[in-house]
Amino acid sequence: MSAMVAQGSLLSSHQPWPVLIVLILPSLMLVLMLLPSPTADAKTLSTQAGTHPRWGVDLMTKADLIDQTPRLMDDLPWRTVSSLSSSESASAPNSTLSLDWIRKHLGTKSPYPHESKRVSPLIDTPEGYELSQLHLICRHGTRYPSSSRAIAYQKLTKKLREFDVPGFEWLRHWRSEDLYPITKGNLLAAKGDSDLYQIGRRFAIRYKDLLDRYPYDANTYEFQSSNKVRCSQSAYAFSLGYFEGRYTTDPGAVNAKDDMDRSPVQPVGIATIPVGMDKELAVKYACPRWLESVKDGPTVVHETLTFNAQFLPKIREQLSAIFSLDPGSASANITVKDVELIYSICGFEVALYNNDQTWCQLLRQGIEGAAVEKSEDQRSNFMNFEISGDLDDYYSHGPGIPFNRHLGCVLATTLGNSIELALDTTTEKFTAGRMGDDDDNSQHPFRGLFKFGHSETILFFSSFLRLYDQRRVPLKSNMTMEQYEQREFWTSKISPFAANMAFEVYRPKTRDVPKKRRLASKDGSTGANVQPDTPSGLIRLLVNEEPMLIPGCGSAYFCEWATLKKILQQAGMKCDFDECCTSLQPPKNIDDISMVPVCLGVNPDVN
């Protein structure tokens, strides 16, 4: 059963805003980028190894697929002083803070590392198995800053523009309102469109065999998005890349006599649930207890503020000294909040425009001047900003608060249910008997389930699986730089823009491999929470397109489904989400939110 069907009551026709199945239209930029020219050969588009109609590259074989962003950005009509390509942007002389290094240390605002991703078909399928299903959980692509941030950027720029400082003449012409319009707050940027399109193209190449066996059909592929435009646009951009060159198998399209009778791209249905009801992708807003007891709780505030007090004041003093009218005169009086804003703008300049020659240049000056000892490394000082953000996320959305694991349990449940259906061959008969769009109750296996949410979607579910808390070393504000550099919870690597977790589901091809496995505990008995019969299959997890070991599955990337199912059940799959998230006032005398009660069924010590 799909995640949407599993919500039950949400499908009632009398609900004020039921599940919305929306057909997302591409943005104007993507239309221009993807539609073929009038002279394009339709047969070229229908082949899997076709040439992109605008970029003119063979998407199946050329390394240009790795990252087309510089070329895309060069084509934009609103290209400004900040939209510099990597070849034009040189880091400050004698600085160890290069553009490439900064790109990897911006926390959850880090750009996705397309340049490091391989473009190749799936070639390591286990012998005797075939890929039966692909389950993707993905963050939206690169977005604009929030409207409130954009307003703050404008105020800070106006404040600093009053000072004529050599080396920062760009401030006179830098226009926040053009680069970060208030009206685009949190919306997907053109770079974000490109992020998901590129990932979709690489997935189409990697999973070509799956697409050949299971072409697009609404009964075969399910798309789900958080009820935010940046997420639904990301879902659509991914679908454009994933299904590009593959016409629908609908009889009307197959028998069309004219190309005008069929769409040049594959439309897909995208399901959304209103904020506050979404228990998978925008989950924190559906959990009153998290909102009351965890969000901005004392532990989060204490750890972050304690750490910030160790490095922000020195940088503030240095930047204030830089923006002085004359030696000994009054300075710009830059505040700690201003320093945080400068880092924020630097991050978006790099993420959206690949530019480190404006606010990142200013931040370098503050970091270098704030070093009181020559032994202090510039990179360590810059990493303090990254660590500050990680401390916040570690306790707000990560393993720092055991309760946070609960917020991944519904996503784990739908994952487990979908895998079970894909591996159980007896369910395939339901697909043939499904009654199209009017049949909301039949269980059938999807071959692709693609879900698009937020940074916290990735972090909550990673915490549920304990992917980045295996050593049980808590992230604290008083650790050494060496300890920080060895931390497991590192959001720049875990959840950059367009971060993704893909579960490949493999089932036996022949009867040589047992179709069912019986799960038993160490004493040989079947656990109360474990189904006695489980379909045979193998699961592999890819994080940001790289294989990752699942805790509890041993040293093999391919994990037996029987083993993974038991891990999910012990961690809290099929927990009572509503009961656990019931709104309760936080205890008045608890100073440590790690003491927020953990829900029954969610084991904080599993694995």
UniProtKB/TrEMBL annotation:
Entry keywords, A to Z: Hydrolase, Membrane, Signal
UniProt cross-references to InterPro entries, sorted A to Z: Acid_Pase_AS (IPR033379), His_Pase_clade-2 (IPR000560), His_PPase_superfam (IPR029033)
GO cellular component terms given for this protein: membrane
Molecular function GO terms recorded: acid phosphatase activity; bisphosphoglycerate 3-phosphatase activity; inositol phosphate phosphatase activity
Catalyzed reaction equations: 1D-myo-inositol hexakisphosphate + H2O = 1D-myo-inositol 1,2,4,5,6-pentakisphosphate + phosphate; (2R)-2,3-bisphosphoglycerate + H2O = (2R)-2-phosphoglycerate + phosphate; 1D-myo-inositol 1,2,4,5,6-pentakisphosphate + H2O = 1D-myo-inositol 1,2,5,6-tetrakisphosphate + phosphate; 1D-myo-inositol 1,2,5,6-tetrakisphosphate + H2O = 1D-myo-inositol 1,2,6-trisphosphate + phosphate
EC code: 3.1.3.62, 3.1.3.80
Pfam family name, one: His_Phos_2
Places the protein is found: Membrane
Family: Belongs to the histidine acid phosphatase family. MINPP1 subfamily.
Listed name of the protein: Multiple inositol polyphosphate phosphatase 1
Biological source species: Modicella reniformis
Lineage: Eukaryota, Fungi, Fungi incertae sedis, Mucoromycota, Mortierellomycotina
